[in-house]
Design a protein that fits this description.
It contains 17 helices and twelve strands. It has 411 residues and is α/β, with parallel strands linked by helices. Strands 5, 6, 7, 8, 9, 10, 11 and 12 form an eight-stranded mixed beta sheet that branches. It has a four-stranded antiparallel beta sheet with strand order 2-3-1-4, with helices on one face. The protein has three domains: 135 residues, N-utilizing Substance Protein B Homolog, Chain A (Orthogonal Bundle); 54 residues, Sun protein, domain 3 (Alpha-Beta Plaits, 2-Layer Sandwich); 188 residues, Vaccinia Virus protein VP39 (Rossmann fold, 3-Layer(aba) Sandwich), CATH 3.40.50.150. The chain starts with a helix and ends with a strand.
Length: 411
């Protein structure tokens, strides 16, 4: 699967297909497979650098090459015993090529002998030190010169498991106590999220099936609060799948919500979430960039525009993004975002508000898109959003990276 991603395939899709081919895998085996894939891709730059030092020429067999990378990841980051990792890698190599066992054994044992020197060498090169493509590192350093290292390092950490409490069912404090009674420790963070000390299966969460709580990053939970929805409002959630933000809006106010997404398969996720949470919305299959195909002509008082983007703020959850994206993709996303923003603005009522959202840290997709839109629309003004400097939420140990711009349509 690591090889599939490097060849341009989405990791989520590749992993799902592999698991379908192995239906007898236990939950533990599925979890281990996912950890190996995600971990290797998080640290791919560093691992590839060190493997390059160990091999004069890369193997012509890409699967063998990536087997070595996975083994290096296990040695470097897992708790498994080193000799067990080497033996398992050798056996796996023999399944690929009967004569490859000796090569794999030699490479991995050389790594163990040269480990500290290789790690020090990796720290001297930016792509291997941070495990991002050079263009990505350069963009972050240019935009955030004093915070670049922290942003890049945050993207290589394991993401926390964060909960959103359904305040129509209970309070954040009451649910935190309920978790404690189960022996599950949780910390409350802004805006009103609970971060678990250790991830658990959702079926271990009290009242999960009854809709008392959902899994959602703390940064994503800002959206519903910032949009300032109130009872009775007509609200649009464009690009709504899988429905987390839509559900949050319905949890905090009694609104008439229309949730739109152009992906029919992902629309099913919205309906599943709404059903579990016992919430109601009009779910529509449609493209946010061409609302004339699905809009009924009635203006919305609030619009959430969670637009497609590079996802550069959520790479710790999707490490394949670092190796799938190209520098030219950022301009392409920005053009698409501007098109969607322009299309949705015409659906907004006078004195209404539109919240433009990305899960990106690149300014080309964020404030630059907003600034260009404001120049074309004198009736639009960008409102200040409390503690979010310029609307940018940078990734850290408590949340992923998001950008928020609240645009008011003046009378």
């Amino acid at each position: 699967m690591v090889n599939s991603v490097i060849l341009g395939r989405n990791l989520t899709q590749a992993l799902a297909e592999s698991l379908r081919q192995h239906p007898k895998f236990s939950p533990q085996q599925r979890g281990a497979l996912q950890d190996l894939c995600y971990g290797t891709l998080r640290h791919y730059g560093k691992l590839a650098f060190m493997l390059g030092k160990l091999m004069q020429r890369p193997s012509r067999d890409a699967n063998l090459q990536h087997l070595l990378l996975v083994a290096l990841y296990q040695i470097e980051f897992s708790k498994a015993q080193q000799h067990v990792i080497v033996d398992q890698a050798v056996n796996a190599a023999k399944l690929l090529n009967a004569g490859a066992g000796g090569l794999v054994n030699g490479v991995l044992r050389n790594y163990l002998r040269q480990r500290e020197a290789l790690k020090q060498a990796a720290m001297r090169e930016e792509e291997s030190r941070y495990s991002y493509p050079h263009w990505w590192i350069a963009a972050i350093k240019k935009q955030y010169p004093e915070k670049a290292a922290a942003i890049l390092e945050a993207g290589n950490q394991h993401p926390p498991m964060t909960l959103r409490v359904n305040i129509k069912r209970t309070t954040v404090v009451e649910y935190q106590i309920l978790l404690a009674e189960q022996g599950i420790a949780a910390q409350r963070v802004e805006p009103d999220a609970l971060i678990l000390e250790q991830p658990v299966a959702v079926d271990r969460l009290a009242k999960f099936a009854e809709g008392w709580v959902s899994v959602q990053d703390a940064g994503a939970q800002y959206a519903a609060r910032i949009l300032d929805v109130r009872d009775g409002m007509r609200v649009l959630d464009a690009c709504a799948a899988p429905g987390g933000k839509a559900a949050h809006l319905l949890e905090i106010a009694d609104i008439d919500l229309v949730a739109v997404d152009k992906d029919e398969q992902r629309l099913a996720r919205i309906n599943e979430n709404l059903q579990r949470l016992q919430l109601q919305a009009q779910v529509v299959c449609g493209d946010a960039a061409t609302p004339q195909a699905w809009w009924d002509g009635k203006p919305f008082q609030r619009i959430l525009a969670d637009v497609p983007c590079s996802a550069s703020g959520v790479v710790r959850r999707h490490p394949d993004i670092k190796w799938l994206r190209r520098a030219a993709d950022i301009d392409s996303f920005a053009k698409q975002q501007a098109q969607i923003l322009e299309a949705l603005w015409s659906l907004l009522a006078l004195d209404g508000k539109l919240l433009y959202v990305t899960c990106s840290v690149f300014k080309r997709e964020n404030q630059q898109v907003t600034d260009a839109f404001l120049k074309q629309h004198p009736e639009a003004e960008q409102e200040q959003i409390g503690i979010l400097q310029e609307g940018q939420l940078l990734p850290n140990e408590q949340h992923d990276g998001f950008y928020y711009a609240l645009l008011h349509k003046k009378n």
